[in-house]
Amino acid sequence: MPHELDKQEQAAQRLDVIRFARAIALLSPLKRHLLRLIAVFLHHHSAKLPGYNGPLTPSGVIDFELDFDTQDACETLNIDISSFESVTTPRIEGVYSMGSTASFGQNPQSDIDVWLVHSAELSQSGCQLLAEKALLLTAWFAQFDFEVNFYLVHPQQFIQEQSRPADLYNCMGQEHSGSAQHWLLLEEFYRSQFRLAGKPIAWWPNAKPNPSLLSLGDTNALPASEYFGASLWQLYKGVEKPHKALLKVLLLEAYASEYPHTHLVSEHIWQHTLDGDFSAANDAYFLLYESIEAYLLKRGDVRRLEITRRCFYLKCGVKLSQQDRAVDWRHFKMQKLVADWHWSDSLLRTLDNCENWHCGQLQWFNEQLNELMLGSYRTLLQFASTHQLSESLRISELGLLTRKLHTYFNEDAHQIMRLNPLWSRSILEPHLSVIYSSTDQCYYLYRCGPNPRNFLEHSSVFHSKSKAKLLIWACLNGVANNQTRWHEIRQSKRKSNYLTQAASRLDGLIVNESIRVSKMALYQPWHFRKLVFLLNFNSDPTESWPGQDIMVDYMNSNVFSIGRGYLNMVDSIDVISLNSWGEWHCHHFEGDKSILDALSFVTPGMKRANVAVSVDVISCSLKLRSQTERTVKDLLYRAVRLSRQAQSSATLAHALQVGKVRYGLFFNNRGMHYENLSDAKSFYQQLSQRKLLELPRPSLGDEPFAKLPAIIQDYAAKGAIQYFLRQRKQGLDVFILDEANELNHYVQQGIDVNTLVNKLSHYHTFEDPHLTKENFNLPQFFKLDRVRGELMAVPFGVTHESIEADF
Question: I need a labelling partner for 725 at 20 to 30 A (CA). Which of 455, 546, 610, 793 fits?
Fold first, then answer.
């Protein structure tokens, strides 16, 4: 038995040494030194060293040794540790790298994920200090363009019963994967880790307890209930890095297909290691790919396999077509793979030139990745529907993950999707052309100038029923800026100039950067953060108007009803919006009542905002630009002010003439509604004299909200399913607002809030027939509680600590 144990330890140690050497081989000389310094800064704690945050921070790594190469790293970066005393009571069990480092998947852009396994005796305050130090170290390494992410791990985190994880589920749980995955995360660690300092890891199957080794648990009994949460988490990670997430989601699918007799990648690695195979074939990322390949070949899924191969190749960053690149340990293995795949030289050159891909190439690849990830999600959803949700997957977090995914995978025609730049350094275009097709009534965007020959060589990169949406998509995704020249084919030169001018003004308003979205924002109904009104972009009535701007100012005329002909000078409005969920939308309104419809649309979302909404108005008119911009902006501010003044017991009314018709704009706590006042003479006369009326009625027309608690009316938001739960003596009050704000109410007997939320979540996740498409629109749950006498809607599962954390 001791001999067998020695054999296992020696094999694991040899693999560990080889992995460290492979990691070093793929790093620049400076980053090799930085990798070695990670353990130094965790072992020693001093004001003279990076990461110092006070004298009480735990330090010291068990069995830490300062070898020649580490000493050299210290000297190179002027780190003097010669005067430091040895640490008598080390508080860190070990420091380990995991993920793509030291594998086929390591490329120059790869970050370093470090698991910092601390002593089980470390207090919560000690963990907090260590976590703060880790953040300081991350910032220090970032100075050298070296991304190091630390995750604190309790040695019992994966061993204790998951019904008691509260004290152990610390920083790593929140940042690394939330509650979405547990054992699958440990399996990924086992298959990819190598030691930077501390105890060796007993990661092989059925490893026996040994005080000289660190055992974090056995992944043999991997529960089926975890696959769904893990797939959700990988989809969420895929929003930023879809090529990487796709490989992991497909691995989950392959694992699930073999359940309960799953052959884990970590087991394959161990078998290679025991057989004495330390070649490039015994590599975590390569064996991950092999597992996916075997699964897809078994299914005959050639299309998904081809995209998977491209993702694997791009993730590795080997670039075989570039002959002048240095050859590393992966080169010949990758060369053989590509030969077996029968890839052409032109495909290789295209993939190796990924840093210079234009927006059309990115668009195509993004679509392929999204389609494949959603396909895997469907398969894993079907697998998970026969099992219970993992107990560790908190319902509140399930809602957050799906809400975030909804903002990315939503098929709403009005939403403007972000284009993931993947590897491209810049996709900015000097010329963009718009062509309208009368056949399908769509606008098409081309990345070229107006020369007719260009359209034979290029395909459109984006299309939409809305011309404004093309403009926003290009600005939002960095395809256009204020230097880009726009052309509208088969239209006058002035139309092209207006396109260019509109895009130039949008450049500062539509920012191509990630939007900070807090957890609390996703728990609550959306509201607007930014609104941009684009006036007369599609059709411009001022072109044929014979008057002069100065006369409108002099007469203080109403731009919605000018002169004896009562001409409306605003015919088309495109409303561009950014909401609190980080979504960009573009809605189009056209015709005489476009201003009324646009006001009615934006008022509820402006009213719900607890801070001022950024409002900008851009007129594309030939004439009356400043007048239309000023009038519409004033009307917007008035609308939101009146909607906030209106109470549930009263409706405020305001008069506005549009064309030849006088309208009443009615505001209450739900928003705005307009009515033709032509047949209401006395009412019209009152509005004409007083401009504003307060009406003693609680609703806008015939609607079911009059008997609803006012707080629910404030939270009502179209596009989200919302449950409001109130515990009363006679039972549990359940109010439901669906995506169209239609109301249902019933009283549930003999069940508590937690049980009901779990049942409803399971239903909406696996059984709801309306959620067959991947819109991820799981409900939002609110508890109705009285706080200091006032009825409040509290998001279910929220803690004060997590309210402002980014998600």
Answer: 610
751-755-758-764 Cα dihedral, nearest 10 degrees: 0
Question: In terms of DSSP bridges, do strands 731-737 and 431-437 run parallel, antiparallel, or are they unpaired?
Answer: unpaired
Output the six-digit token pair for 698. 């609680």
Using one digit for the tens of pLDDT, what is the confidence trace for 385-423? 777 666 566 666 777 777 778 778 877 889 998 888 888
Classify the C-alpha dihedral 315-321-322-328 as positive or negative.
Answer: positive
Q: Which amino acid is at 759?
A: K
Q: C-alpha 19: how far from its chain's center?
A: 32
E-assigned strands of 305-397?
A: none
Cβ 205 vs Cβ 365: under 8 Å: no
Backbone angles phi and psi of 187, in degrees to 5: -65, -40
Please give the full DSSP string across 493-552, using - where no structure is assigned.
Answer: HHHHHHHHHHHHHHTTTS--SPPP-BHHHHHS---EEEEEEEESSS--GGGG----HHHH
The span from the CA of 738 to the CA of 722, in Å, is 6
Q: What is the residue-averaged pLDDT of the chain?
A: 86
Q: Which secondary structure element, helix H or strand E, spans residue 740, and what is its range?
A: none
Q: Measure the CA–CA gap between 604 and 583, rounded to whole angstroms.
A: 16
Q: In the Cβ-directed half-sphere of 412, how many Cα atoms lie within 13 Å?
A: 21
Smallest Cα–Cα separation from 43: which of 105, 98, 89? 89
Q: What's phi and psi for 330, nearest 5 deg?
A: -90, -15
Q: Tens digit of pLDDT for each residue in 688-732?
A: 555 555 554 333 333 444 456 777 877 888 777 889 998 888 888
CA atoms within 13 A on the CB side of 247: 25
DSSP 81: -
CA atoms lying within 13 Å on the CB side of residue 393: 27
Q: How far apart are CA 223 and CA 177, in angstroms?
A: 17
- Euclidean distance between CA atoms 559 and 14, whole angstroms: 80
What is d(CA 580, CA 415) in angstroms, rounded to the nearest whole number?
Answer: 14
> Could you write out the DSSP letters of every residue in 629-661?
HHHHHHHHHHHHHHHHH--TT-EEEEEEEETTE
Q: Sign of the C-alpha dihedral, residues 508, 509, 512, 518?
A: positive
Using an 8 Å Cβ cutoff, are 486 and 364 in contact? Answer: no
